[in-house]
Amino acid sequence: EIASCLVGSEMCIRDRDDTQDVQGIVEQINEAMNDEICVKEFTVLKEEAKTSMAVLAACDYVVALKKGKDNFLQDKECCKKAVENLAKKDKIEIVKKTKRSEKLVDIRNNIYCIKTDPKEFEAFTKVSYGKSQLDTEEYDPLFYCELTAGSIVNIKPELVLEALCHEEGQEFNVLDYQIHRIETVSYTHLT
After folding, report:
1. 4 pLDDT band (50/70/90 cuts)?
2. Residues 124, 113: Cα–Cα separation, whole Å
3. Under a CB-based contact definition with an 8 Å cutoff, are residues 188 and 149 in contact?
4. Pick from 99, 69, 59: nearest CA to 189
5. Mind listing the pLDDT tens digit for each residue in 48-58?
6. How far is the C-alpha of 118 from the C-alpha of 100, rounded, in Å?
7. How far is CA 100 from the centre of its chain?
């Protein structure tokens, strides 16, 4: 059998011996991990099951500004208005780069939620992120978002940031930001 587990917000796959119980595997993996990484779930997939990436539906992110960066989003009211304006748009077109080409894509339908308030974001996702938050001594959280993820469509938070900056007439510099994935969401969790 193949076993799939979430390590922090990452998915990993390993072969499983039928004699091992799932909770024992979780404990074994957690003992080997550093203190900042913890396995939350472990699901044994049946042989005929879809791959882990095929059941991935979305990822939740916190986007933060690195300390010492001069950026228009460091003003909380400005950031809130920019996020609200982006969320209200019917269409958000951005140039998406692939290995072989570039194309204009509308990413609006792939942004399930974008909020500056972590409590509002948790209310949408119905998840309490607790220790998943960034160290606020090093990073200043700007907004939280849930985006389409998976093997067919995968929207990176950098595209959302780029669109936000573009809409506000500001320069986008990826080095100003720290992006932290705080959760992965499978199709089974959406039903």
Report:
1. very low
2. 8
3. no
4. 59
5. 766 666 778 89
6. 37
7. 25
